Amino acid sequence: MTDADPVRLYRTVRLIRRFEERAIDLVRAGTIVGGIHPYLGQEGIAAGVCAALRGTDLVTGTHRGHGHVLAKGADPARMMAELCGRETGLNRGRGGSMHAADFSVGVLGANAIVGAAGAILTGAVWARRRRGEDVVGATFFGDGAVNEGMLLEAFNLAALWRVPVLFVCENNGYATTMPVDGAVAGTITGRAEAFGMPAAVVDGQDPQQVHAAAAAAVGRMRDGGGPELVEARTYRFDAHHTFEHVVRLDYRPPQEVTAGRSRDPVRIQGGRLSDAERAAVDAEVEATLDAAVAYALASPEPDPAGALDHLYASGLNARSGGA
Amino acid sequence: MPRLSYRKALTRALADELARDERVFLLGEDIRVAASHVTAGLFTRFGPERVLDTPLSEQAFTSFATGAALAGMRPVVEFQIPSLLFLVFEQIVNHAHKFPLMTGGQCAAPVTYLVPGSGSRTGWAGQHSDHPYSLFAHVGIVTAVPATPTDAYGLLVSAIRHDDPVVVFAPAGALDVREDVDFAALAPVPLGRGVVRRAGDDVTVVAVGHLVHDALAVAEELAGQVSVEVFDPRTLYPFDLDGLCASVARTGRLVVVDDSNRSCGIAAEIIASIVERVPLAAPPRRVTRPDGAVLPFAPGLDRAVQPGRAALTAAIHLVTKDGT
């Protein structure tokens, strides 16, 4: 069950693009505190992969995770409210940008520790299948994560136990400021191959190509295949984090940035639509985000008395820090 | 009455919970053949789907358990070596523990981490002899250290049924303890509830895990000179402060014996919590491992850095002499 509908793919990449641009405005306005890691330029990967998944399938995202959460179907208004730290947010304002989660649509959370989510998702997919549910999973991570031991351990466990997890490496060329060439010995696909996992490289700027690769892998996994890896080559259009809007870090040559930005997933996918189709989607996305921002700004901030709500699922009461 | 060993009590708790609840499964290293003896017979009885022998990938299988718990299972992860907890501290603290709050209550992570053979096993030296329960209490993870076979059974059962992560330390020094037990009377022991092991009037000794047995032996030796009450907290986090306050309010004196390193060890927390609430007749004392302890290999050196009966006896004499 996949959906390669070009209009739907365009709607998703456009939604993520405009969501991020709106969120950056709110960071500049001081409404979103702590900043964000913009997903600008990488929208085609979340859109393409999630279009190959069902609602019940599971995903985990990264610190640069807004795209994954939105593409899997979370409500943009509640997502924006979360970034703004509001009680109506997906996580009731307890998670923020780096931990946004929506278990109701299979998003087990953005995860801010690089390389940590792969094993969590592997365990979750294994558990659901043990309980008789026909689900697969996709875990997103960046090129920096491929040097984290725990992710490589997760490759091994998933492959050994044939857990159907699509490992999606978003290779945007940099782990914060560290270029891939300065950090990765060997290759990213070679890491997967070492564990007997099929691995493919795909153009991450083309949502349809990402979708085709993901759908093929997911199809094999639903037919009983084990985990696979897709390395989506992409380019981060903006900063590692919005703090770079204030403090310029010199690590990407301007020509490289210009060249990277020239291959824009929103424009590439938009080019597959008629002008009328595109205008209709753009208007719809704008209306959705107008409503999302309005909803977030109108929502109440959480009551400080509930700062430790949900610390313990068991209801255990933690002692307060006061005298 | 039949005798039950501490180890067999753990096995029995695992078997009962595996039989009772389909969501429970075990994972860990060499558990198929029960290298630690605790999972003996469980692989044969419950099969490879519920007794998962793992590769040496502690970080991945610890987080795998987190993921399985988020998806509705109740994993029990066995660590053969207490010091492996340092390796997976990130996975437990940063993920399993934080998920419920960070997601605004969308999930629970009911994982049990079982450490059979924590603390010194004599001769296992620096990297296999740690007792890091205070670290888990510090970060707010439910931490149980049963002293007896009955409590080993009851606390492990409660841990598995608990909706948050729980670490169960089974001290090496207690694994060979045996008890006369009515098997039909074995029951869950509530987390966060301590017990007075021996009643006394002059001083309350809080002893953690295997040290409960040392404290009882010292109390017996001192009987006639000093009347020692022995309090076994059983769970270090949450801690049964009400129970301990009731004891100390009667005795007015407090000694804590704890196999943690001294700085920020659980003894420090217990003493601080009591002096905030109960006026004492004498300054409290603690007997612990030294600051920054690394257990040396040679048996005499290993013993020299562990809290022992002689140091406990000296501490009891100090607090009963002080303030009189």
UniProtKB/TrEMBL annotation, chain A:
MF terms in GO: magnesium ion binding; pyruvate dehydrogenase (acetyl-transferring) activity
Dehydrogenase E1 component domain span: 12-304
InterPro entries according to UniProt: DH_E1, PDH_E1_Alpha_Subunit, THDP-binding
Cofactor: thiamine diphosphate
Gene Ontology biological process terms in this record: pyruvate decarboxylation to acetyl-CoA
Annotated organism of origin: Micromonospora halophytica
Domain of life: Bacteria
Listed CDD domains: TPP_E1_PDC_ADC_BCADC
Keywords in alphabetical order: Oxidoreductase, Pyruvate, Thiamine pyrophosphate
Protein name: Pyruvate dehydrogenase E1 component alpha subunit
Keyword field contains Oxidoreductase: yes
Automatic annotation (TrEMBL), chain B:
SUPFAM superfamilies (UniProt xref): Thiamin diphosphate-binding fold (THDP-binding), TK C-terminal domain-like
Pfam families (UniProt xref): Transket_pyr (PF02779), Transketolase_C (PF02780)
Recorded GO MF terms: magnesium ion binding; oxidoreductase activity
Gene3D superfamilies on file: 3.40.50.920, 3.40.50.970
Record key words, sorted: Oxidoreductase, Pyruvate, Thiamine pyrophosphate
Cofactor(s) annotated in UniProt: thiamine diphosphate
Domain Transketolase-like pyrimidine-binding residue range list: 4-177
Name the record gives this protein: Pyruvate dehydrogenase E1 component beta subunit
Lineage: Bacteria, Bacillati, Actinomycetota, Actinomycetes, Micromonosporales
